[in-house]
Amino acid sequence: MVHINSNGVKIAVFEYNRECSRECGTGSTVMLLHGWPLSHLIFEYQVNLLVELGYHVVGVDFRGFGASDAPAFGYDYNQMARDVHAVIKCLGLSKVTLAGFSMGGAVALRYMRLFKGFQVKKLILLAAAAPRFTKSADFPYGIDSRDVDAMIEKANSDRPELCRGFVDEKLFAMPHSRSVKSWFTGIAQSASGIGTIKAAVSLRDEDGHDDINCINCMNVPVFIIRGEKDTVVPVSVTDYQHSAIRNSTLFSLKNSAHGIIYDELENFNNYFVKALVEN
Predict the structure, then answer these.
(1) pLDDT tens digit string along 4-49?
(2) Is residue 102 among the annotated active site residues?
């Protein structure tokens, strides 16, 4: 792990297989952006596979989450996208496949617009909370903003229970062991209180329509992977993404909820690798 300075905040970055990717593998980088309220650790079973396939893998903990600093500011998508840019520049990355899960997908789209897709060759949206997480007058597809208000209130009074409930009730549709659910709950509980709350405010309020529209001006392949039983980012949201992003490719996991990175692990990994190798 290394810490990269972004606007005075230390962003935790985890690199795997950098030298091998240059010498004997694909020569390209996969950057993984996690969702709320988690960390890069959720991608353990993707990192293992990608390293075996010869990819250089970079996992980022957003500010306020995992091993990154938890400042009192900077939980808007613009700043989180700037943090991603700081990582790409500091590590000298190129030919990056940018893969963002849930909130991480929304930040990935914001990065593409703010930095004109700097060093990104492909975008993979994983149950992405974009262009909005919540419903609005011009976007009737997300969840009700009052549900996010309730999450914020719970985070202010009983954050451990919020994390447990999110994992037990929202993340999975398939049956998983108590140990797996405890693992994901522990990852969620490792977030800072301030990051959990302020990033939830961004999820509630941010609008990324301009981000999606901007993608259509770029020559970057976009792949969308979703769970058909997702109640956090409903299929109507990913349907919108697929229709709004010209020439995007959609993969659906029929038995997965929001936690697509684990719910049908083998199927997800197959789709993920397919997205990596296709143009």
Answers:
(1) 999 999 999 999 998 764 444 455 899 999 999 999 999 999 999 9
(2) yes
Of the residues 192, 230, 242, 248, which is catalytic?
Answer: 230
Buried-state track 51-67, b at ≥16 Cβ within 10 A, e below 16: bebbbbbbbbbbbbbbb
> Is 258 marked active-site?
yes
Across 186-265, the runs of DSSP E, i.e. the strands, are 222-227, 249-253
Taking the C-alpha atoms of residue 209 and residue 131, their distance in angstroms, rounded to an integer, is 5
Give the three-state DSSP class for 147.
helix
**What's the pLDDT tens digit per position in 69-125?**
999 999 999 999 999 999 999 999 999 999 999 999 999 999 999 999 999 999 999
Block residue for tokens 């991603």: 84
Phi and psi at residue 121, in whole multiples of 5°?
A: -105, -15
Cis check for the bond before 131: say yes or no (omega within 30 of 0): yes
Could you tell me the CA-to-CA distances from 244 to 32, 213, 222, 230, 277 in Å, in that order? 23, 7, 11, 20, 23
Which one of 102, 192, 202, 248 is the catalytic residue? 102
DSSP strand E in the chain: where? 2-6, 9-16, 29-33, 56-60, 96-101, 120-126, 222-227, 249-253
- Residue 69 annotated among the catalytic residues of the structure: no
Q: Which two tokens stand for residue 228?
A: 């058909």
Alpha-carbon distance 178 to 131, whole Å?
Answer: 33
Q: What is the pTM of this model?
A: 0.97
